[in-house]
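Retro notes, structure queue

What went well: the backlog is down to a handful. What didn't: a couple of records were mislabeled last round, so from now on we paste the full input next to the output in the thread. Example, using Lipoprotein from Leptospira ryugenii:
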Amino acid sequence: MLQRFLLLSILLFMTACSKNDKPLPFGSEMRMMPVDTANQGRNDTVGYYIPEKGNYRILYIEIDKDDNGSSDEFIWQGLSSVQQEANPNVKSMVKVHEEVDENNDGKIDLIRWLLPNELIGIAQKDSNHDSYFETTMFYNLKKQIVRKEIDAERKGFPTIFIFPDRAEIDSNYDRIPDLVVFGTSDLELEAKATGKKDTKPLAKSESRVLNQKLLPAEIRPIIGSGLID
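Corresponding output:
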């Protein structure tokens, strides 16, 4: 596991030793780099890269995490880079997108959109592994999930909105939360909201979904609460 971590770190943060980013020529060649990170006689990681002289870039990585011959995680790299604090002359590539097969059934069930500094902007999850991504998760600057939206009725829009201490429910599917439940954990809130248990009426003026200014600063997501949009 340590060896895999070290190798992936090299692949994910392959650097260009220059202060200036160079544009990639149109139609640049892409190559594959299969690697046996666990020394088990079979490749479990493949990196796709552009071998431009002085501008070497990893663009995409596939990982077979459980060594069953199927890719379980897919990582896309952006063309932008960030300067390393420890070495100002070196810039690291930035991950922009990840897809993960969490239960190893051959289907993607978790998708993440990433920001610089390894921050997660938004993630979508297929919680019951039926190929429908019903849950969207929003993160704060501390990489914590501070808002979860669930399309519980598969209507194409969320009907349950979960915050750290409460959940708001759109009970009549007009896209306006009208019920609220309170709790101390994500599991408790989701169970109450899904079963509409211990609900109380919610006025529009008291809805955190409709009034972002009601959100305490510590639970404001990076995306969707005015921090960057």
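Agreed that this is the format going forward. Reviewer comment attached to the example: The two ends are 39 Å apart (CA to CA).
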